[in-house]
Amino acid sequence: MSMLPYLRAAVRPALRRSAPVQPGYDTTRDPSASSAVVDCAVYRDGRRALGPSCLTPREAIRRVREDGGFAWIGLHEPTEEEFAGIAATFGLHPLAVEDAVHAHQRPKLERYDDTLFTVFKTIHYVEHAELTSTSEVVETGEVMCFTGPDFVITVRHGGQGSLRGLRHRLQDDPELLSKGPSAVLHSLADHVVDGYIAVAAAVQDDIDEVENAVFAAPAKGVARGGDAGRIYQLKREVLEFKRAVAPLLRPMELLSERPMRLVDPDIQKYFRDVADHLARVHEQVVGFDELLNSILQANLAQATVAQNEDMRKITSWAAIIAVPTMICGVYGMNFEHMPELHWKYGYPMVMAAIVGTCLTIHRALRRHGWL
């Protein structure tokens, strides 16, 4: 453990200054490039070996097996043809290769002979001026990692989730990088989970905004229940977030608790910290889902209450109007012999009775909260 006193500082982006950009690495694949490889380098004793700015995978593994160290190849959205040569060079299992090329995989950890295959879902928070019923809140990508005795192959899908900063931070810490491919795997897992933590904080702000809007007094002329679309959209985005976080719990548990030949024992201890942070994020996301359920139910209940209030008011006014309608209907039948029909004070008496009765009913309804 004494060999890794600064491990946390090396893998926490917020605690380390940004490393200067080095040549030979780009965040995404250049559409005009003939290869999906965005960086390929050999690391020996924790340092990037001198040589061409970007080796070919075949040249990298040849140097590693001649002089030691390990190779780290980064790819962005490779095709089957582009990945076939790399898979043959490193002896990757066909099932893992198929998953890495086609993406849209569930987070998982699998072992194929002397290679660990790990799938991570990356999450990016989409900034928006105002949350609407069609707002995209989170955007997902994928990072697959093949970890072998002397190589690491990272395959990234999606336009976000760049590993550029991660590679340079590791290159700035030779002591950590000297622990081999498992150090890269740990740093990648920690990098992904750190992204989850940041997105969870941003989503929390959106939920707070919706919650305040639901329970705040509505503006004049605005009906209750108008936030249902926003709540439902946010719930869908939280569900997508949950699908990225929940399946990763078991792989992190295995990496932190089960001894593995491909994972350095000193590095394995730090997977426990990643697993702990992941568990905390998972609890948050589950809490978000339950809270949104409660907010949606409260919003619908408020809409129902508002509708009931409107119906009570309509019913109350209908009851008041029924009095003059009934009296006028009786005296509008045009029978010749009707009481007070030819009486001098008949009309004033009827009008007074109508007004008096309507006022009495109105007062009674207001006393009981119907008007």
Please characterize this protein's 3D structure.
The protein is α+β, with helices and mostly antiparallel strands and 371 residues long. It has 11 helices and 7 strands. The chain has helices spanning 7-11, 57-67, 80-90, 94-102, 164-171, 174-177, 181-215, 228-245, 249-257, 265-330, 346-367; strands at residues 37-44, 47-48, 70-76, 108-112, 115-125, 138-147, 151-157. A 7-stranded mixed sheet has the order 2-1-3-7-6-5-4, sandwiched between helices. The longest helix is centred in the C-terminal third of the chain and has 66 residues, at 265-330. It starts with 6 loop residues before the first helix and ends with a helix.
Order of helices and strands: HEEHEHHEEEEHHHHHHH
Structural class of the secondary elements? alpha+beta
List unreliable stretches of 5+ residues.
1-34
Query: Beta fraction of the residues?
Result: 5-15%
Spatial order of strands in the largest sheet: 2-1-3-7-6-5-4
Number of beta strands? 7
Mean pLDDT: 82
Alpha carbon gap, first and last residue: 74 Å
Radius of gyration: 34 Å
Annotation field: number of helices: 11
Q: What is the overall shape?
A: rod-shaped
Helical amount: 40-55%
Main beta sheet strand tally, sense and closure: 7 strands, mixed
